[in-house]
């Protein structure tokens, strides 16, 4: 398989944490706090370890918390173009092996990290003490949207991917500018993470190539998740962002409503599950961090 646009030298600044050698590939990990079980933060697509701050600081007051950048994201080296949830779950397993992390962990998975965490939990039940799906991608969502709106959704999807491909190519030539990606950085994000975050986006073509290939395999990843079946009696919390909106027209409202509706059936994955609704947008750990921390602490208490 082709490598995700390798670049000999990237100006990304100092990493937040440490770089772990995983089968010859560097993986960036940020570890905070003490306690057990360890909570591993499984990021959304395009999310970075930087984006978990200051939430990780807050959660680390209660237990040990680890965040990492998946292959090609931020300070982690790229892998290959086969960016399916299954492949990224295998890479997470390899990271735990490289760090000798043998005790079962709690997975807190947001958005695009949901399918990765679900597959890991299904394939390695002995390594997972609990799973929290935080407004995670429903495995059947993109297939539903494609079938429901065949004359619009797939074309908008491809237009977005074409834009991502251009970002990657411009970044590889050191020509990607802040004005190019203005629509991808909200004023709130810019204020919170500033120049450091912009550098991660502007100077790393692997970041954009990774997102490009994740999207190419999104329906396949959903099928991989669904092929795993249920998770038995694994402690599971499904967090639903009830204030997440995608626009004012009927089409956008339909997409947002189906995204939310598909969250609830995820609770059927386990006989020990619960649904927690949070009045927040998609990045609810930024908008309502204490609500998320409360769910984590409840799960720790249940496990212990």
Describe the SSE topology.
Layout lengths: L17 E5 L2 E8 L6 E4 L12 H5 L5 E4 L16 H14 L6 E6 L2 H11 L4 E7 L6 H8 L4 H20 L14 H16 L2 H12 L1 H10 L8 E6 L8 H12 L11 E6 L5 H4 L1 H15 L1
Parallel strand pairs: 3-4, 3-5, 5-6, 6-7, 7-8
Antiparallel strand pairs: 1-2, 2-4
Radius of gyration: 18 Å
CATH homologous superfamily descriptor? Alpha/Beta hydrolase fold, catalytic domain
Integer tally of domains: 1
Tell me the number of strands: 8
Structural class: alpha/beta
Under CATH, the topology can be stated as Rossmann fold
Could you name the key traits of this structure?
304 residues, alpha/beta, Rossmann fold, 11 helices, 42% helix
Description:
This protein is of the alpha/beta class. The protein has a single domain (18-303), classed as 3-Layer(aba) Sandwich (Rossmann fold). 42% of the residues lie in helices and 15% in strands. It has eleven helices and eight strands. Strands 1-2-4-3-5-6-7-8 form an eight-stranded mixed sheet, with helices on both faces. α9 links the parallel β7 (236-241) and β8 (273-278).
Outline of the structure:
This protein has 304 residues and is an alpha/beta fold. Helices cover 42% and strands 15% of the residues.
